[in-house]
Design brief:
Elements lengths: L9 H7 L2 H8 L19 H6 L6 H4 L11 E6 L2 E11 L5 E4 L1 H10 L7 H4 L1 E2 L12 E11 L1 H4 L9 H23 L2 E7 L4 E10 L1 E7 L2 H4 L3 H4 L11 E7 L13 E2 L8 E2 L8 E6 L10 H32 L1 H30 L2 H16 L3 H7 L2 H24 L5 H13 L5 H17 L3 H18 L7 H4 L6 H8 L5 H9 L6 H6 L1 H42 L14 E6 L14 E3 H8 L10 H8 L14 E6 L11 E3 L5 E8 L17 E5 H11 L3 H6 L2 E2 L4
Parallel strand pairs: 11-19
Antiparallel strand pairs: 1-2, 1-5, 2-3, 3-9, 4-8, 5-7, 6-7, 8-9, 9-10, 12-13, 12-16, 14-15, 15-18, 16-17, 17-18
Length: 728
């Protein structure tokens, strides 16, 4: 939705207001639900939230001195990248039981799966604590507090500094503050930039490293609809997985150990099993990844017409190849389920994003907004001096940015998506580390063993052949690696395989086990390593250096452009873009109209699954046990009043990647669902939210309860929960 915000000059407003503009303003009289809001500044929103139906106070949601809802919300992280949250989740029992999405835990399920124990296909349920699967490389973090540290971080910073000097000083101030807070608290401190580097906020986290798999449905349920239904409504996906947090005997974070015990939660969520209704208040909390709501029109146009089409084209071809191999071989299906899901997610999302941007005329609306800003600037000499040429300079530099970013994106989506080339790049990276030869040897061997566990050479050969062709068709001559120039594009992948020892697991591991320091001459002669090395040099230097230079200019332009917007539209609330920090969104359960004469209602049921399973579509297979439960209407106390079994629902909350697994709350702060997706027509919300079509999709918590109880027979987990509102 384009939020038309008022410039402060009353005279200008009265003179320029048109009937069209007035109609647009009046259309905003209701709640637009746009925004990903900061928890420690929630007092600015709580009035509106209570008008919409919320029964809680701001302190009930965020408080650093007493238990509150934030203490039951977690961010999922890779332990080697602890401040980048790839998903969200929530604690739902006093014993540290955590729920998130199936797709968030799929890599862990895959890690524990084999042809003998195929947990991806069959699901997994630990019937006791001893059965829970640990040793995973993920963690969860709790936000303990958040505060504005802008003054500290910008100490000594002024607009007279060069961009490089400004950034260096800010980074130094950030490092000092993070170290000081971490050392004094024993927790993990991290400073993030907000409002395009105009403000800085500190987040203090407690990170738990021992996270064990408790239960997950078979992929036919957890990913029902697959790529066919991804980003779509109606949706019938049972997208949930259960983990448990473990801690040491003092309830403190600890590395995985048999001596660890279930975490004693300071707060956990009650679950509301009552039936929902359209218009009910919904609140969502979690760690949204990245949005770019405040870009200028020409930046949105580049995303729409250049970047999105490139990604959609290449990924679509890769997905088709991989799926063909998955259908032919069950072992490939196990190895590539998570990989193809990752590719497909962005592939379909960018299709919807581009469609939404075009249909809602976002570029044109952005231009109209920029015209308002230019008129505001022209009203005083001070504004002219500060911002007079900003957009002109920004747009001129953006032309160069598009050229360089397109080159980077092309290599990233082609050569860098080849798994065999990834072997060479990873080995190259490890060999360049400033560590001992023995440490390099150990890291490379561990990497190779992990890599080949989930690798299929025949699949990668076909994909790589296509990717090389795409790169040669579209890359500038100076960006083509010399080794690739000498190859026949039709046989390049076969040559790399036949002449490289790196694509054979035994040969590759044996080579690096032979000596602490590898035979550099042999390695450099290997065509796969050589091509990977050449591509990395082009990516990092030939493309990377000019891209880095222009990015610094673009970032500075955007910082000033963001400041301009906040000053021009000072009377309006403007939320900061998502940046993987803790946020709160709110709205209501509601359907939408994607096109003329089409109206989507906001609820789906198990009956829809059975309708789809008759369509003979690969993504619509259903386990026999679920069919039988449906045939028997054996839904327990989790059914709707009309006897149907709920599955998913829509709400108007503003979400993005990283919000997967985010708890969805009712007006009293009880858990009612898990966010897991957005509708295809509204995926443009990363760039521009539109209240008419932007909807997030949630899994009804009652389906989760039904599945654990009736399908999995894990009654001990149901008894661990605090459930209200059961129908019987």
């Amino acid at each position: 939705m384009v939020v038309l915000l008022f410039c402060r000059t009353k005279t200008f407003f009265m003179k320029r207001l048109t009937i069209t503009f007035l109609a647009a303003v009046l259309s905003l009289a209701g709640h637009c639900n746009e925004g990903m809001w900061l928890p420690f500044l929630l007092e600015n929103n709580i009035g509106e939230m209570r008008e919409m139906g919320l029964h809680l106070t701001a302190d009930d949601i965020y408080n650093i001195n007493q238990a509150c809802l934030k203490d039951a919300v977690v961010g999922f992280v890779d332990l080697d990248n602890p401040f980048s949250h790839f998903c969200s989740g929530s604690v739902i029992s006093a014993q540290g039981l955590v729920i998130t999405n199936h797709h968030c835990g799929l890599s862990v399920v895959q890690q524990h799966s084999s042809l003998q124990n195929d947990y991806i296909t069959n699901g997994f349920w630990a019937m006791s604590l001893a059965d829970e699967l640990g040793g995973n490389d993920i963690g969860v973090c709790f936000l303990r507090r958040m505060e504005d540290v802008t003054e500290t971080i910008l100490q000594g910073v002024s607009d007279t500094l060069s961009v490089k000097r400004r950034n260096d000083l800010i980074n130094s101030n950030i490092s000092q503050l993070e170290k000081k807070v971490s050392d004094s608290t024993g927790l993990k401190a991290h400073v993030d930039a907000f409002y395009c580097d105009n403000e800085y906020y500190l987040s203090v986290y407690e990170i738990f490293e021992d996270i064990r798999l408790v239960g997950t449905p078979p992929i036919e349920v957890g990913k029902f609809g697959g790529d066919t239904d991804n980003w779509a409504w109606p949706r019938h996906t049972g997208d949930f997985t259960l983990f448990r947090i473990y801690a040491d005997s003092q309830n403190q974070p600890a590395a995985y150990s048999d001596k660890n015990v279930p975490y004693r939660a300071s707060n956990y969520l009650k679950i509301n099993a009552k039936q929902k209704a359209e218009g009910d208040f919904v609140m969502l909390m979690g760690y949204p990844g990245t949005t770019n709501e405040y870009l200028p029109s020409f930046a949105v146009a580049a995303r729409q017409d250049v970047f999105d089409p490139l990604v959609v084209n290449v990924r679509g071809k890769s997905i088709n190849i991989i799926k063909e191999h998955m259908r032919a071989d069950q072992s490939v299906m196990i190895k590539y389920t998570s990989k193809v899901a990752s590719l497909a997610n962005a592939w379909k999302k960018y299709q919807g994003e581009r469609t939404g941007l075009i249909s809602k005329r976002v570029v044109e609306k952005k231009r109209g907004r920029e015209q308002l800003m230019n008129k505001w600037i022209a009203e005083t000499d001070e504004r002219k001096a500060q911002y007079g040429n900003l957009l002109d300079y920004y747009e001129a530099d953006y032309i160069e940015y598009v050229k360089q970013e397109k080159a980077r994106l092309l290599m990233s989506e082609t050569l860098y998506k080849s798994e065999m080339l990834a072997i060479g790049r990873k080995i190259r990276t490890i060999l360049n580390l400033n560590i001992s030869d023995s440490a390099k040897q150990s890291q490379i061997i561990d990497y190779l063993n992990d890599f080949f566990t989930d690798y299929d050479l025949a699949t990668d050969r076909t994909v790589t052949s296509m990717l090389i062709g795409e790169y040669l068709d579209n890359a500038l001559p100076e960006h083509i690696p010399p080794t690739l120039k000498k190859m026949n594009r039709a046989t390049a992948a076969d040559v790399l395989i036949s002449k490289s020892f790196l694509t054979d697991s035994a040969s590759a591991v044996a080579f690096f086990k032979k000596s602490l320091a590898p035979d550099t001459k042999k390695l450099m002669k290997d065509p796969l390593y050589k091509l990977a090395d050449e591509a990395a040099l082009i990516y990092n230097i030939t493309i990377g250096n000019p891209l880095g230079q222009i990015e610094r200019k673009i970032d500075n332009h955007q910082r000033l452009f963001m400041r301009l917007q906040r000053q021009c539209f000072a009377n309006s609330r403007i939320f900061p873009d998502a940046n993987s920090t803790f946020r709160i969104a709110y709205g209501q359960i509601g359907g939408y109209r994607p096109s003329d004469a089409v109206r989507y209602t906001p609820f789906s049921t198990l009956g829809g699954i059975m309708e789809k399973c008759d369509l003979d579509v690969y993504d619509y297979t259903v386990p026999d046990r679920l069919k039988q439960l449906y045939a028997d209407s054996d839904f327990g106390p989790y059914r709707n009043a009309d006897g149907s079994m709920p599955v998913c629902f829509l709400s108007t909350c503003h979400t993005t990647g990283g919000n997967s697994g985010s708890p969805m709350f009712d007006a009293d702060g009880n858990l009612i669902g898990l966010n897991f997706d957005r509708v295809w027509e509204g995926t443009m919300s990363d760039l521009q939210f539109d209240a008419d079509i932007c909807r997030n999709i949630g899994l009804d918590i009652r389906f989760v309860l039904f599945f654990i109880d009736k399908y999995a027979g894990a009654r001990h987990l149901i008894e661990e929960l605090d459930i209200v509102g059961l129908s019987e």
